[in-house]
Amino acid sequence: MPLLPPASTLARRACLSLLAGAALALSAPAFARTDTPVRVDDAWIRWLPAGLPAGGYMTLRNDSARPVALVGASSPDYEEVMLHHSVMKDGTMQMLPVSSVEIPAHGELQFKPGGYHIMLMKARHEVHPGDQLPLTLRFADGEQLRVRFEVRKPGATGYAPAHGSMPGMSMPQSGK
């Protein structure tokens, strides 16, 4: 019959194993690649009532010497998250899904009302103005960037001034 170590030794080993596991879990972000050349400014979501889809907006800045493609996004707070572009077609504003958007080398791309945006559908819980929600941006090179988006009231326009009858919507008129 093999001899078992004393109970205090077993407890010490269990404690050390737990501490090692916790240290590894806490250091995991250090092992994740964080060298994405993209910075995000003014990330916000326009909240709409009654569970209507929301729009996510931001400015993406590419500090590298090569273009970077954003290919998707996700959020634990929404079932569906898609990249969209609003375009005027036959006198009607349409939101079209896009598979990717390019941020030019040493340049920026604005996601703003009336242009590119992140379409957020089917909230998994009640969302309110003032909430801070995480979204993960996915890039073509495999990089991911987690960003907190501030939820703002329906009339929010970000940095852009309001235009026309719809705040934040720059809508060209057909035939002019």
Can you characterise this structure?
The chain is mainly β and about 180 residues long. It has one helix and ten strands. Strands 1, 2, 3, 4, 5, 6, 7, 8, 9 and 10 form a ten-stranded mixed β-sheet that branches. Residues about 15-35 and about 160-175 have low confidence and may be disordered.
What is the structure about, briefly put?
By secondary structure, the protein is mainly beta. The protein has one helix spanning about 5-30; strands at about 40-45, 55-60, 70-75, 80-90, 90-95, 100-105, 110, 115-125, 130-140, 145-150. Strands 1, 2, 3, 4, 5, 6, 7, 8, 9 and 10 form a ten-stranded mixed beta sheet that branches.
Question: Which key phrases capture this entry?
Answer:
10-stranded mixed β-sheet; disordered C terminus; 1 helix; about 180 residues; mainly beta; globular
Radius of gyration from CA coordinates: 23 Å
What is the 3D form?
globular
Helix content: 10-25%
Structural class, by secondary structure, is mainly beta
| Number of helical segments with 4 or more residues | 1
Number of strands: 10
Distance between the ends = 94 Å
Integer average pLDDT = 79
